Amino acid sequence: MKKVIMGNHALSYGAMLSRSQVISAYPITPQTQVVELLSEMCADGTLKAKFIKVESEHSAMASCIGASIAGARTFTATSAQGLALMHEMLHWASGGRLPIVMGNINRAMAPGWSIWTDQNDSLSQRDTGWMQFYCSSNQEVLDTTIQAFKIAETVGIPAMVVLDAFALSHTYEVVDIPDQGKVDAYLPPYKPYARLTPDAPCAFDGLTGPEHYFELRYKLQKDMEKVPALFDKTSKEFEEIFGRRLEAVEPYLCDDAEIVLVTSGTAGYTARVAVDEMRKEGIKVGNLRIRMFRPFPFDAVRRLLSKTPKIAVMDRNISYGYHGIFCQEVKSALNGSGSKAPVFGFIAGLGGRDITVGSFREVVDITRRQDKPAEEINWIGVKK
Amino acid sequence: MPKKRDAKKIVYESEKEMPQMPMSQGSMLWNKTGKWRNIRPEIDLEKCNQCGICWKFCPDMSIVIENEFPAVDYDFCKGCGICAEECPTKCIVMVEERK
Question: For A133-156, what is each residue's pLDDT tens digit?
Fold first, then answer.
């Protein structure tokens, strides 16, 4: 059934169709509608799930962890300051190998107090051991939520589905909401590796000495490394059932491109419009949209950028004291791959400033003019 | 409950034998936490009225009732002193360990 829904509700429908059994969340702009709709679904019986109200995001993730250890499929959603407050609990979820799925609406970190989009909130959680998938459309949000449960439960690693504040969270688009039967065929009930049960009493996440901790971390990384192949496998199964393809890295007119614009989130679709416009003018540009940030799909990035003469990475985030975070990941992925392409780093759109087709034209202008990057960071749209 | 004398520390030789997540694989009774103790409770059974309050309050289940009187399991008692604090007849005193 096709419906016109906002990005936040695409997350709610994804969690509902995945038959989430426990949802625990604390409301925060711009995430509120995600859990508002889910709480209504729980109240009217559309979704047979326990909705746990809590007094903070730290508690929201803590109750998700408890529910997940007990064997329930568990969902939550948050944003910015809420995600930061969860930080400690994110480690408990991944270290405890619990396949919790969380929607995070990218919102700039305070201060100055902001509700508008940028990616520093989720990217600050890079090393917590969570998978991260960045979305560019409401359909992708819904589809990715369902796929995220499948991947998370296969490897025992939690997953974040990430979307831009307002640019996606509050934007209404046509979304094909799949039949429950199809989703059930794709996503079987959750079978936990182990769970808290009186039938087999056991304590979880207790004291682990130097003789064992290292191996547990090794296993987490080894299972993370399985995810790129698993992503492709679960995408194929998804396409067979739903007819839509989900890519970890999505190339657009990259094959003959002289410059490839690397993007993530909604900026990707803006980049495509810019690519189409510039192609008409005879400028050979392409777009590479990175959807999976953790684990980083470095094989795919290396392969898709292997013949690209110049690479321009657009970051809606910054690692202060270095540069854009996707830019550093792309550079690091290409190191040793044989690519000699200069990587130009661009930062735009912090705190929700618009990234427009004009922004990408400026990126291409700068990249065409220079053989090598003259600056570590090229700022797009700063009032200098 | 496993017997104290049977409890063994489990050490894995390979990550392959280990569970995916940190989870208990057996008893922790091998871990004799009594060696952490700086002060030890000593019970004067002459003054004890057998109320059982020390047994109830001990956070580590280190007070055991033997022949209807309390006794301290020194293998696990960490010497926190809660039993001495709570004892209504003050028959438990904390004595410095001299080892």
Answer: 999 999 999 999 999 999 999 999
For residue A322, CA distances in Å to A294, A325, A329 come to 20, 9, 12
Give the chain A residue nearest B25 (alpha carbons): A202
Exposed (0-12), middle (13-18) or buried (19+): which is A45, by Cβ within 10 Å?
exposed
B11 shares contact with chain A (CB less than 8 Å): yes
ipTM for this prediction: 0.85
> A194, B21: Cβ pair inside 8 Å?
yes
CB-nearest to A219 from B11, B20, B24 is B20
Could you tell me which chain B residue has the CA closest to the CA of A192? B20
For residue B97, what are the contacts with CB-CB under 8 A and spacing of at least 6?
Answer: B37, B38, B39, B40, B79
Domain boundary among A181, A206, A241: A241
| Domain region containing A18 | 2-241
**What CATH architecture is B7-96?**
2-Layer Sandwich (3.30)
Same domain? For A274 and A358 the reply is yes
- Look at the block and give the residue holding tokens 């110049």: A310
Q: What is the pLDDT of residues A101-126, one digit of tens each?
A: 999 999 999 999 999 999 999 999 99
In a 13 Å sphere around the CA of B77, the CA atoms on its Cβ side amount to 24
B36 interfaces chain A, CB cutoff of 8 Å: no
Half-sphere exposure of residue B33, counting CA atoms within 13 Å on the CB side? 12
